[in-house]
Amino acid sequence: MANIIKGDMTITFTEDSKPISVVEKLTEKEAKAITLEVWRYLRDHPEIDSKVFLPSKLFSKIENLRNECPLCELFLESEELINPGCESCPLAEAGHKCQDAGENAYEKWAFHSNSKRRKEAAATIVEIVERWEV
């Protein structure tokens, strides 16, 4: 798959060049609102261990975003794993850069089977994003 950013839209294509999704560029305010909606839900429902198990109405807001994350959609500059755009993300600025294996709230949420730890990690993400001034 490949993404092309054209104006205020990101268009995702399959390997045979067929477009599969078009996502309008999010504003910081929109990214913050959707991120908080998702992570508050995950905090309040720690039995959910993957974003794909969110209620469909909520998952539909993120399913076509990079990494199913409004912040990634907003800040990532390319599909590269080491991405300079990550430095602008409020999670990275708070010391929770998603690429830092095991040392960040996202990794702790994504890879723990313990509901209590997932709830704590999701709550950390909510707190960080709530503090982000847009």
Approximate helicity band: 40-55%
Largest sheet: 3 strands, antiparallel
Q: What order do the strands of the largest sheet run in, or round the barrel if closed?
A: 1-2-3
SSE arrangement, N to C:
EEEHHHHHH
Number of helices: 6
Query: Could you name the ranges where pLDDT drops below 50 across 5 or more consecutive residues?
Result: 1-8
SS class: alpha+beta
Using only CA atoms, what is the Rg? Answer: 15 Å
Q: What is the general shape? A: globular
**Mean pLDDT metric:** 82
Amino- and carboxy-terminal Cα gap: 31 Å
Number of domains: 1
**How many strands in all?**
3
Residues in β-strands, percent: 5-15%
Short overview:
This protein has 134 residues and is α+β, with helices and mostly antiparallel strands. The protein has helices at 28-44, 56-59, 70-75, 90-93, 105-110, 115-131, and strands at 2-6, 9-13, 19-24. The chain is built from 6 helices and 3 strands.
Task: Give a written overview of the molecule.
The protein is of the alpha+beta class and 134 residues long. It is 40% helix and 12% strand. The protein contains 6 helices and 3 strands; from the N terminus they run E-E-E-H-H-H-H-H-H. The protein has helices at 28-44, 56-59, 70-75, 90-93, 105-110, 115-131; strands at 2-6, 9-13, 19-24. The N and C termini lie far apart (31 Å). Residues 1-8 have low confidence and may be disordered.
Give keywords.
single chain; 134 residues; alpha+beta; three-stranded antiparallel β-sheet; 6 helices; 3 strands; 40% helix; disordered N terminus
